[in-house]
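Example with several molecule types.
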Amino acid sequence: MLHFIFPLIGRFHPLIVHLPIGFILISLIFMYFPRKDKSIFLPTVKFALLLSTVSAFFACITGIILYNQEGFAFDTVRNHLVLGITTALICLSLYFLIKKKQTTSDPKIHMASGILFLTLTLTGHLGGNLTHGETYLTEVLPEGIQETFGWKIEEQFGPLSLDEEKWQEALFFEEVVQPILNQNCRSCHNEKNRKGDLMLTSKETLLKGGKNGEILSIGKPMESHLIERMLLPLDHEDHMPPKEKRQPIKSEVELLKAWLLAGASFEETLGQSEVPVALVSSFFVRNETSFYPEVQLEPIEENILKDLKSKGFFIEKLSEESPLVKVSSINFPDCENQDVASLEPIIEYITILDLSHSKVNDDLIPFVGKMENLTLLKLNETDIQGQNFEILKNNIHLATIHLTKSQVKKENLLKLNSHPRLQKVFAYDTPLAKEMTNEKINGLSFKVEMGNFELPSLPTDKVKY
Amino acid sequence: MPTKNLPAFLSVLLFLLVGVILFFKEPKTVDFSTDVKPILNKHCISCHGGVKKNGGFSVLFEEEAFAVTESGQPAIIPGRPGQSELIRRLYESDPEMRMPYHRPALSESEIETLKKWIHQGATWGKHWAYNPVQEPEIPLASGKSFTSILAKTPISPIDYFVFQKLEENRFEPSPEEDQGKLLRRMSLDITGLPPSEKFVSDWNAGKITYAQAVDQLLDLPTYGEKWATWWLDMARYADTKGYERDVSRTMWPYRDWVIRSLNEDMPFDQFTVEQLAGDLLPNPSEAQLIATAFHRNTMNNDEGGTEDEEFRVAAVLDRVSTTFEVWQSTTMACVQCHSHPYDPFRHEEFFQVKAFFNNSRDEDTHDEEPKLRIYTEEEKVQVQKIKSWVAQNSNQKEALAKENFLTYQEPKYHAHLSEDFVNGELIDTKWLGLWHKGTTYLRNIDTQSSDLMLLNYWADVDGTKMEIRKGGPEGEILSEFTINKTEGRITRTIPFKKISGKTDLFISASNPKAKPQQSTSAIVWFAFIPSLPEKDNPEYLIMEQQWQDLLAAKPISLPIMIENPDFMNRKTHVFERGNWMLLGEEVSPKTPEILNNWKAEWPKNRLGLAYWMVDKENPLTARTLVNRVWAQLFGRGLVNSLEDMGTQSDTPSHPELLDHLAWKLMHEFDWSIKSLIKEIVSSHTYRQSSKTSPEMYEKDPENRWYARGPRFRLSAEQVRDQALAVSGLISNKMYGKGVMPHQPEGIWQTVYNGESWKTSEGEDQYRRSIYTFLKRTSPYPSFLSFDAGSREVCISKRIVTNTPLQALATLNDPVYMEAALKLGEKMSQNPKKNPDIIISETYEKMLLVPITDSKKKSMLNLYEEALANYRSRPEELKEFLQDKQVNANPELAAYILVASALLNLDEFLTKS
Amino acid sequence: MKRLENLLTELHRNQLEKQTRRHFLMDCVSKMGGLALAPLLLGCETNSGKPANSQQLQLSARDLNPLSPLPPPYFAKAKSVIYLHMAGSPSQLELFDFKPELVKYNNQPCPESLLEGRKFAFIRGVPNLLGPQSNFAQHGESGAWVSDYLPHFSKVVDEVAFLKAVHTDQFNHGPAQLFMQTGSPRLGRPSLGSWVTYGLGTENQNLPGFVVLTSGGKTPDAGKSVWGSGFLPSVYQGVQCRSKGDPVLYLEDPKGINRDLKQTLISSINEVNKAEFEAFGDPETLARINQYEMAYRMQIEVPEVMNINDEPEYIHELYGTKPGEEAFANNCLLARKLVEKGVRFVQLYDWGWDSHGTDHDTAIDLGFRNKCNEIDRPIAALLLDLKQRGLLEDTLVVWGGEFGRTPMQENREGKTQGFKGRDHHVDAFTMWMAGAGIKSGASYGQTDDFGFSGVEGKVSVHDVQATILQVLGFDHEKFTYNFQGRPFRLTDVEGEIIRDILA
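Resulting structure tokens for the full complex:
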């Protein structure tokens, strides 16, 4: 019935520890505070120290009870526990020392009290960490500081990436193998959390291996546990990384194999190990900037959206996260300029505008010109001729214009020349396509697709075999 | 204070303290299955259970949960929450250590529950669904406050359970539904059709009470047809084999058996036993054999190049999964590859269950043997004659063997067993074809020391010398015979040397006349049946003749389940990772640990399994049935996930109600489905109005608390049947082979399959939908768009959707146009001649409630416009009515349009 | 959710005051402009129809119209897909995978080592190798190898990216087609197209989101389940549009009912349904109203888009169409028209590619070559036509069979055959993709000298599916649906995106 008693006492530890702390401090203060006659406080000091010792031991006892009631792992509490007890013992010895010497000014005593102070603070700090977590103190510090002191616990490791030009100079281990390990293995094989006594954080630890011995057999990738484990069938219990964790992609494993095959050197570069480009090509950073503009916008308000949709517009976000939208008149064939004008409230959101098959005409272009994030404009099968296309130069993000089967004219298209971004214009089956000649296109700052492709018939077409 | 009092003071304090502590009684005990297991399933089990046992820890099985983990100590230490790794990991600050791994942390209350549970000794328990059904207390106290609403209807036990929840959720039940609507609801639910006019008038006249109405409806033969549809979805009944060629098969006798059994209200336990193991019952009746076709509804693959064994195995696995989905609401499919991540069924247990099913004779052969030969009455008499003759002149065992062979032609060996061909092939991987100088082996054949061999084959060339030798080319000759051209397939009796025990047969053919690589014959199967006794008895010849006639007869044949004779027994192995080629340890028939115990008196075969299923101790069978019947009536199960009642299933909305009905079903109704249905439809819960208010809808969109009556779209079959019924087209002809109502051209385009859709004649076009021919690879289109499945696998729940294709079907499908036409005719022939009245009457006939003015206005308006249109455009009128009508007139056309509109009304397509 | 409340409170008010109720409906109706009810529903919807929590019912766009569009999780390269499936599986060795070595070994017995542990559908014993029956040459700037069986296609190779070492694990048609289209060889899983329409809905509200066109006179071996919706609601299954009879079943009005009359018919049905909704407040009724509106609009739009006669002569020549027939060429043209109209997923099946060499029609150098002729021009035309209309910018085109063909001459059941044929082969075959998000002119993967199995750049069926989903803006690992208590994925537990062919 009273099985709760011990846990209960145990849980008084956090309270009781403060007694010795207080007492010890006060004793130390009384020992060193008085400038001249240090002996006046002697009795007080002795009494304080006595109290300190008693409470310190009590603290230790409650502490130990707490430890095995709450079943902390020993190594987590070890230092705190040892230091705690030491503190108590030093406290005791200091008490007897002073009792014997009948003075507080004695080198031995100074030393002892010094140590006492030290252990006290340390014990306290460790205790704090135990209750509030390792990073309790540090995590409030600015990240920079944390990193410099290596206090940061959550390390983020991005996927392996290599420079397309200079990949051969990349160090095979430093810049390829370790990053791969970091991303796939480190979370369970690091300083804090060494599953299977294995760390995959450095050359040394890698060579050291884990509880099942070495994990690398140089030159024989398939015999290295490191690789073996990765290649086991996914639902094999020894498979690494565990089924539910992120799995290394084939090319990553291939690289690790290549590294072992090439002698698992920690100095060589990819070039020196003669790694074929095919192995690394998939890691080249394509520094393509997103096709769509990067923006900071609040998502459009629901009720605005509601109204516009009820007009008949199709409006959908480009992706679940992005606030930018695609607007289309696909279900709104009667859409005219003024209907489009009603998009004013969301104008900066419009990234893709598709008014194909609608009733809009050139007078709309000035309004379109105001769509700062417009990237893709579709005006297929409209009466657009493009008289005022120069306005579209304001749409600095505009990359593609679809004018298939529109009324766009050659001279109007030229107005778009040297547009800041425009890359492609589709003008199949337009007046433009009819009048324009190929050499003219080359002069333009963007490509024009005029189609009219043909597949000349061949003798084989009609043959029956 | 004086120091000497201190001790006293302290001791007083201590006593007080202890007293206080003793005074506080233990807190409410945490229940494992309702409180703890859900949390474990939600957060832990995906990594610590079944497939994955991360850190060597699993919360799937009790012993695993308390076992020592990789860390060297158990993760759960009863009574010591703080000490239990399980709890500590929930608090960790290091994201690599904190559980659930890289997922949002548990809520405080969840952690508290877990701590409490451990603190209270961490007693393991079963998930509710695996505990035997107990009779729960009926909460008679509930619903007191509702009396005003419930003035009229009597209150059934069901209602008390429902009211209890309503009160908990601050709901009120709805008043009883309008009588007309109620009758329609009831009739559609029980018979799948609207009530007959007579019935309606009696009802309106108050001649029949509610209870009588229910009984009368349940007694109608249409009841069986409605509920058979529900069962056939689970039985995956179809009229074709499935897979690539998907050719027709004869399955309809089974469909008819289901309808009959339901109409006879065959108790569900018997219903179960006969379907799972009718063949194993002591001298089974024909009907009982037909019942076993339940498990022959598995697909059968005729695709060339496929290995029969692979698809036999596929069929057997499907039988295991289906059996458990249908009777136990348990998804077994996953356990096929690994221990079930969620339900406590072990990998090997799946195969122990499989062992029950692994010894049926069927082998995915092209002919789907074994087949029950459904003889004519005369033929049956002959069979009996032969039987008794053999009984007199030989012994009962022989007699039975002969009868069995005549009834389903087993045991026999199929050609696909032949191997090691020289100059020979397995034609289209089906039949044994030996060329000139061709040889092959049939291995491990037990001829039961028969003096005859029956050979089923056909041949296109004359004079092929056949030889069968023992063991190999040099072995002794067991049989020699010549094969000549045949008229199609024949079963021929050939003398065979008596030998005992298993032997390899070496078969060789030679026929110089055959073209190179031409098969001299196509052999389908071999059987070894001793000749009839008493050769010199004068009657012998007659008997022999009858025997031959019966062998040659081609009666309707239905694939059925027949158990292997001992000498043909198969071993059952675990499949490593579910791969049928990777055999693991051998297993023998056994039912899963967690469920009810096996009784010694049960035979260790399908029959025993069936008994085990319907044993009152089985926790799932009754609950499953109740849940599914309930779903049929309310559109939603008490456990919403009909296919799964396991630990991952939705928690039941009314657990006690579920158990109450399950208990009643077994102990009071003796498994009578009709009684169960009556019990439910008699409750106020069922009878209440389906009207919903926005706030009610907002609070309970799915109507899981039943504050209103059921309202949902009718099933594909009901939609069609109802249209046929109200227009008077429907045929009440029952049973027989599948019919083919009109279907657009070019729907059937299956490869390597000559069959085509031949529209049925006469009334067969208007039979109830359950009789419509169902081709798996291309089912009747309008059924498909109304969410009926293609019946390739067991479906326990149809997802109801709402699509334009449905609208197109009910607007334009000739079936519905025809219904509209008939209905329109009726309207135009109505003597009253006043569209206003006629429309109102028709509407009321169809929906059993008077039409509202606004609705009438719309319909009238339609009538007027249509009328105007056809008056002004006679050519359209002609087009519209074509030669269908002698007395073609604009009125008729207009009425037809109105009829079509009525047939398309939401309220008409919906049960409410 | 916000909107749901709005609507419900509104409805509530309506119930109190008849007047306002009329009002509510009226202004929804007035918004409709005659029959266009969609705005009403869009107007009254909430936006919370996420597939992720699809099971829970709430009055969302998806309840009113299960096909209403949703944004992809990530920026999508492609918005539509045209999938050309050659049912029966064409021979990669006669078309794209040029193996000079095989020429040398023609008619030599196949090395035992290759056959060990392999199963074939019909080949028994030790078959002979069969050299390529066509002449190969390199084409375009990419220098891709294409045989003279595809003279027109070879002109557009620079548009496509080849996968030369695809492998599957099913060697019978039915299972293999299911595996390719649903990610599982067994029945009951949703098809690729169903997944996509379920995830993205469809933009054009007057057309189905997932259209299936078949040619070759047969449906694929695995039947309609290759475009079935498996455990997803059946509304996401492919709608088969036919080139004979009604393009969509029951689309055509019965004779003698003109459009106006039909319009009156449908609007009166919906008037009654509205009244029903007011009385019973079941949102399903609203949904039904919407479906009838959509049905009506489909009746106008579908015949329009399915009618190729209005296309200019030039286009007909380009595709080599056969008006009035069920032809692959027509289907290619239809495919373009459909994506042009905003259809999400167009699936073409052309049957008749199972070239076993058992007769003239299935002979690799005869019947097979005729089949190639049937698709050569149409496919080239499709790519060019999509390109010139700028549709290739946001349309993904996929081509392939369900598996490949053996480098060995088929010896059906040990027979020597009169015709040259190849058996089913799972270890290596060629597929290609083109259009949105694809690195045109690329070629990934290589097979051994016999073209028997991949030596580098092997990709599995799940990899291909993962890549398609990626291009559409999905993470194939996160795109799941809960069924039988567990989340299901198109790519099961596998699948790796083939980055090397992505632009």
